[in-house]
Design goal:
Number of strands: 0
Helix content: over 70%
Radius of gyration: 22 Å
Order of helices and strands: HHHHHHHHHHH
Oligomer: single chain
Shape: flat
Strand content: under 5%
């Protein structure tokens, strides 16, 4: 059994090596622009902070250094997305038919675009609304002084952007699974209630503990699931059941 799996493991190792190498190279490139990237990531927070407390703090000596590295790695990962998706497709391609292999370019393109769209939705809409609500609640309503740790903020922010980026891959995943005849619209409709429950659980786990940000993730995901049903119906509609006796 191991001998049968060995070629697949070798191929997987090759694809992972190329992906990781690309991320590492782009990580070092991003280090040169880390200051600008960090300013970009902290901009929504600084805009939400009250006038008397516009600075982000750090509580450990190594926090700025490790945060800079974390930000650079995140930027390298984002820039390497086309290569990562390409390597993923190259790994699964040997098991596909020739006409299915032609989907590689659309897959890489739309998977990258949807991830960036989800991350942008998080950055421009979800984060400003959530931060304004949370900081306003603490600073103005409870009269507290916000001291935001740079490392904790960046770690949370990156986690949130990756979560939205992955969530927005749902239509792309649906399209290609339907194209491969693995799912149809009837399958998605049949599991609609379970999907909605999982979406709200996912949103609760990945967003701050406030209702606004949870709904800002859950509602778009529900709409994307409905869009996925329409995509599956267009690409691979469920075949009517044979009612002949």
């Amino acid at each position: 059994m191991f001998e049968e799996l060995r070629p697949h493991l070798v191929e997987l190792r090759k694809r992972l090596f190329i992906s990781v190498l690309c991320v590492i190279v782009l990580f070092f490139v991003s280090l040169f622009f880390s200051e600008h990237i960090l300013d970009l990531l902290t901009s929504p927070l600084k805009e939400a902070l009250p006038e008397f407390s516009k600075k982000v703090t750090f509580v450990e000596l190594t926090e700025p250094l490790f945060t800079t590295m974390k930000v650079s790695f995140f930027a390298g990962f984002i820039l390497a997305l086309p290569v990562i998706f390409w390597q993923f497709w190259k790994f699964v391609a040997p098991g596909l038919y020739e006409h299915e292999k032609r989907l590689v370019l659309p897959f890489v393109f739309f998977a990258t675009v949807m991830f960036l769209l989800g991350a942008s939705f998080c950055y421009f809409i979800v984060v400003p609304m959530a931060f304004n609500f949370l900081i306003n609640f603490g600073a103005n309503i409870q009269d507290l002084n916000p001291l935001i740790s740079l490392g904790l903020y960046v770690g949370f922010f990156i986690k949130l952007m990756i979560a939205f980026g992955l969530a927005f891959e749902l239509p792309v995943l649906t399209y290609f699974l339907a194209k491969l005849n693995l799912i149809d619209d009837a399958f998605l409709q049949r599991h609609f209630r379970v999907a909605i429950l999982l979406i709200f659980i996912f949103a609760a786990l990945m967003t701050p503990p406030d209702v606004i940000s949870q709904f800002l993730m859950a509602i778009p995901l529900c709409l994307l699931y409905l869009l996925s049903i329409m995509i599956a119906k267009k690409i691979n509609p469920a075949k009517p059941k044979n009612t002949d006796v």
